[in-house]
Amino acid sequence: MYQIKTYNAIAQAGLDQFNDQYQINKTNDADAYLIRSVNLHDESFPKSLKIIARAGAGFNNIPLDRATKDGIAVFNTPGSNANAVKELIISLLVASSRNLFDAAAYSAHNSGADISLRTEHDKTKFKGSELTGKTLAVVGVGHVGSLVANAASALGMNVIGYDPYLSSDAAWHISTTITRARTLDEALKDADYVTVHVPKNEETTGLIGKEQLAVMKDGVHLFNYSRGGIVNNQAAVEALDAHHLQTYMTDFGEDILLNRDDVVVTPHIGGSTDEAEVNGATQGAHTIMTYLETGNIQNSVNLPNLQVPFQAPYRITLIHKNIPNMVGQIATALANAGINIESMSNAARKDVAYTMIDLDNLKNEEDNKLIDTLSKIDAVFRVRVLKH
Fold this sequence. Notes:
Pathway: Amino-acid biosynthesis; L-serine biosynthesis; L-serine from 3-phospho-D-glycerate: step 1/3. Helix content is about 30%, strand content about 20%. The chain is α/β, with parallel strands linked by helices.
């Protein structure tokens, strides 16, 4: 029986995916966590914990280095909220181009018998522009960015996409009408609107700063519905004060952005729809079951992808450092134990590696002894024995 612990409100449709081999929230000594936005950086993990699945795209609320050293596989659910974010960006493109927020605020504070005359006189200050024919730069054309690019193109916008890490698979999801920029500056320099959709890491933190804003033309509209810190907010405010940047809309508030007519801050609602929550919970549940039952990995954020059909009676999985002679040491330990290897697969991701070994025979009483032997190999973080 596998034990699942949930944090936050996980959609019931996702929890219903677990079969009768799983119990939910019966103990803190769980095999798996299914979470959303809870901050786990100060949490201690039980030794039983093997996997953390984040029902959503972001994972900066999880201490990846510590999880890896504890032999815990961490997954997100990429694409589960992509449509939700896309629809919000499209709505904000329309709102910013037509000055809808300012217009609504004006109407909310002007009422009375003369409102019709006053409105007719004042409405020209809210005159906007149409999106058709305008240029949108999409920085990052993965799950979310590709949907935004295609939707904006369908609205008649000229779309320029920039993503130095664009994979061949992702490229298939981008309309042929999208122009691919070779550099970030090339994407930004002629854009009327700029939206960023990249994961947050060392390379992307501060990706849009003073230098990049200077490349943009006057009157540009900027959107950050990716992660806080991707856009340098101080630089954005300075560009707003200089009337170089016209509006800035973001899902990630900061004191410097508050109480400004040219800034719209939403309360981290980019992926907050009923459908996205169901998608994330469902994908997270299937990810947990696949990993616990087969050891196969896809969409992990701290381990390499490795998927091998589980057809043998037994499977051993090991999370370990990616250093020379690890596979040799593992194979030698099995040989010394008189265990024959049916097949072995290995993959690495930077400093971490993952090995799967299928066996045609293993006596039940050997399980704990084998785990103990393999766990004593220096640089091994976690050993599991799975039965088909």
